[in-house]
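Consider the following assembly input.
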Amino acid sequence: MLDKKLAAAFQEPGCAVNRDKSDRDRKRGCSAVTLQPGAAAGGCAFDGAKIALQPIADAAHLVHGPIACEGNSWDSRNALSSGPGLYRTGFTTDMSELDIIHGGERRLYRAIREIVERFRPPAVFVYVTCVSALIGDDVEAVCRIATEQFATPVIPVIAPGFAGSKNFGNKLAGRALLDHVIGTREPAHRTPTDIAVLGEYNVAGELWQVTPLLDRLGIRMLASITGDGRYADVASVHRARAAMVVCSQALVSMARELEARYGIPFFEGSFYGVGETSTALRTLARLLVEQGAPDDLLSRTEALVAEEEARTAAALVPYRERLAGKRVLLYTGGVKSWSMIAALHELGMVVIGTSVRKSTEEDKARARALIGAEADLFGQIPAKELYARLKRGDADILMSGGRTQFVALKTRTPWLDINQERHHGYAGYTGMVTFARQIDRCLHNPIWRQLRRPAPWDRPREAHHD
Amino acid sequence: MTDFGKVAKAAAVNPLKLSPALGGALAFLGIDRCLPMLHGGQGCTAFSLVLAVRHFRETIPLQTTAMSELSTILGGADNVEQAIATIYDRAHPRVIGICTTALTETRDDDISAELPFIVERHPEWQDLDVILASTPDYAGGLEVGWSRAVTAMVNALVEPAGRRRTLRRVNLLAGSHLSPGDVEELRETIEGFGLRVIVLPDLSGSLDGHVPDDFVPTSLGGTPADLIRGMGESVITLAIGEQMRPAAEALAERTGVPFTVFDRVTGLEAFDAFVAALMEVSGNGPNERLRRQRSRLVDAMLDGHFYFGGRKAAVAGDPDLALAMSGILADLGCTVARVVTTAATPAADRVPAESVMVGDLDDLERDLGPSPALIVASSHAKALSDRLGASLFRAGFPVYDRLGAPQRVSVGYRGTRDLVFALGNLLMEHDDAHPHPAGEDPGERESDGRHFDATLAAG
């Protein structure tokens, strides 16, 4: 059962990484490559599935497993909701030794009932974990029965941690939506400009930096998968006229499936940087017009782009002066390895290197074209080496995720969070200004001068009175 | 007085419990040049790592055996061997601490039987100790894992001693409820009596938040393995927290070193007992500094008790932490209406609260009547305390939305004094934000210090 699901997820013609592989590599799949005992880093498939689905804000998310899976991870993601907050409540069956011996199905069923009776959510997502998968709990059957008994959709998410990487879990989450959710509801009304946005999780409210632009163009976001999402909207996403996949290889397969099943055209884009944002808006408008939306959408989009670009350029002037020429080391992955470069170049900054972990050949080529032949394209680097490079003063600032934060800070190098846990949104035109402001604040904080001075006992004697 | 019991719920709502494997890994970080590793899926390590990084604001060395579906079916011994080899080559640690997880324990990997054979195959690992702690997620929480890891350290490292005793040296077994700052405070107190001390585990050197001169891929600081070997030569073991009793017993069994368990070292009376023990062991009286510190705590309790008397509080945390925090609140006259904890240990049984439960954060507010003024819990209780309009004092693990949690000292006379101030300030602030309508709850108004001051000023 699981095998078939995994195999299906590996056969992804829409995935550029997959296309680039030899036949043999493709058969081996995409999850098993990185896992080296004693040197692996990164989340599991369950983590990825939870990241992808938890932003559906009005649903309950129940983790069927022992305490580590939810106890160690709930309340740690910064995906925001404009309304319901149930998604932030951590639910788990907290399987005990006895549950494992006797099987956890009865506890799971009772847990679903408790949640439905007390919180009345529009749906419950049930996440399978390693242990509940290992002992053979039939979670799909429990969900089926619970759906009937409680008149509430109960959706099994079959992405146990040991199935693979976080990215793979994203895919399996998309699978769960396609299998059980999408197409089960109809929107209250439809417009010729209904779109779907896939793979934007509204981290730090980034979706909200884009939605006002769509509103001004009269483009309606029928469903967001899944940032600030609502269950009923996700269920009716099949009525969208066009879809955008944001910075995510993982949900490309979902977009392709939507295209195959419902004829929804899609494109991959990014909202990081002025240029990328404008391109995304233009592409959305073009796809909608091709689908029958009124022609004037194109000219109105051009007008909006011109206005916003001018306004943003003006707002960035003071920052460009202060940031121009500063050297950035980018340590991220996937699409961000190049989309961030574009944004940094708009600020006049120099990218001395970027990591191309989890990036496709296409991503790598784009990154190479952007940063030039001098700069460094690298894969995963050990913390020790990263430390050495920063200590040497190779870069003025490191931009990365929380894992390498303290590697940078211990070398007394400015650091900016550009991953999941950040608290500032960098999307769209306003996000670009926020991005510039945050870089400026990090780089030009007055602490650096003092911190880099030697202690009194490490200074030459004559320097004591300076 | 207590209606101790587990709540009959099928779904935990906003879990309080963290995984024992995480607790075990944190304990291993208190050994010098150690690299902890979870034997489980890579996600087990990733989640633990993220929490620990956010709490300590440090790079945390923590590895994984990266069990896949296939290796789970075939057995994880190969993964363990491969992981040790990889870690040894790359980071060259002195100790590798393995913590098992629910995945590998359910699968029933018998690593304790395999480990001697694995080590035998690798003579090149002669300067490496590999310690295994059984910490499945389905049994207990962070505190249980910490406790089990420390017991495993004792059994793996401490040499059964002969009759030789190093006079004037004691062992300190530190529970998971102590911050690196707490450990340092206890060490200084002990040294103030002219005693030397071996602390196990010792996070005060590794996770105290400092800027080292170079990058170290293992824990940096902590107790050296060779020092742990000689713990059998100390005159006594002082165990802090009921959770350290099994490790103290194991140590006594191996070496004959007698032990005393202190279930609390936060609070005047509680710390007096610790000091009395040090006086007896050392034959010395307290130094001038300690006398002064006690006097300052007495004064702080005098100044502060107005704001505590009769106020309603609720506490959530692992048993030893819950006992320490509810203990100090009760000491100062608070009504601890509810304590929710993670395991039914003897410490949980001694918690001075109207009701004690093994449960989740959801249980902290259920059927509690009027909202408490103060909640003591981890950062996870933020939404809950906002909803109840209660002040939140962040204690335990994880604390990621405040600076300095690992450095906070809340043990000893000095630490208790600072804790009384911090808690008292929150209660004052809560009072200011929630003024009582005239005539309501006169009992509380009478015991209120501000009211008393106002009367004086008017007179």
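The longest helix of chain A spans residues 296-323. Ask yourself how this observation constrains the way the partners meet.
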